[in-house]
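Reviewers of the previous submission asked for a worked example of the structure-prediction workflow described in the proposal, so we include one complete record here. The input consisted solely of the amino acid sequence. No template or homolog information was supplied to the procedure at any stage.
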Amino acid sequence: MIGDPQDNHCRLFAAAARPLEVEVQVLDYREAFADPSRLGTGSVVRFETPGRDPGMHAFLVELGSRLTERGPTQVELAKTLAQKGRIVHPDLWHLGLGHVLRTIREGAGPTPRFLASPQEITAMFDKCACHAKLAAAGLPVAASPGPITGFAELEAQMAAAGMPAVFVKLRHGSAASGIVALRTSRGRWRATSTVEMGEGEGRASALFNTRRLRTYSRPRDIAAIVDALCRFGVHVERWIPKLGIDGKSTDLRVLVVAGKPCFQVVRMSRGPITNLHLGGTRATPDILANRLREGVYEQAMASCVAVGRVFPEAFQYAVDLAFTSDGRKHCILEVNAFGDLLKGATANGMDTYAHQLSALRQQEGWDAR
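From that input alone, the workflow returned the following structure tokens.
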């Protein structure tokens, strides 16, 4: 396993392995990057999320900066990373991560089995690329007006496409980092966002993530946020009105393991952003039973399986789904390479990690050894 040894995913996966008598070794990304040959013959390699460690973030951003010959100096990067919650070059982070994953995969040789390829992980972490792949495969995704470089261009594209409401997302963001739910009506604007503005170096505005969602109504404030996000790259898509249950906006996370949807968690929120760490609440899928039209839930699960044909080398992945407010259709919001941290979720008496190890045990023939 490659990741941060202190990360929840690593600790829980290792704990799940013990009853299955599977030896789990955790390597830091930097260790595996420096010496991919440490991945032994016959091993099964699982890439974990790089985690929130500032040192790891700095390592990946610095690497991305060197690859493109742009970006902050080490001194500038140290200053920005010291500011809690600061959004620091997710574009360069993505470049650095992709290079590290590819180097590890190529340097390890053909004998280890990788549970996801570098290409698929980095594509899932690129919302524009992922959206394009899903759309090309005929899967249901929200319409996108196309790339933008700033708020003025976004405003024009929304008007041209007849989209009064959109989501603006960091192209390489995760956990709702830098997300803006934006709508306009009769010349008035309203945005709900995880972003706070702060003073940056010179005239640049610094962006910070907050767990307390902010609402903006002044066009100049919204324009400043969108313009600042566009420096890192954004993905824009139509805001799909989600199914409402008990006055709450609702969506569904589905974990697919070895081609089968195994875990489903409903997320609910009073606002448009349902992430649990931002105040969303959990429910079981049976709450959807009387709200969806016949066959819609099954169609949604079929779409989750079909995502595996778009990313055939991913042993596990998570899909975030929305159902339309009338319960007639579903839409894929995102695909997550590291979306299996579903605390308390069980299937056949196993949590997500034990379930994955059990499926691996069958695939790898560990029982026969």
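The chain has three domains: 8-114, 151-238, 242-364. We consider this example representative of the routine output the project will generate in years two and three.
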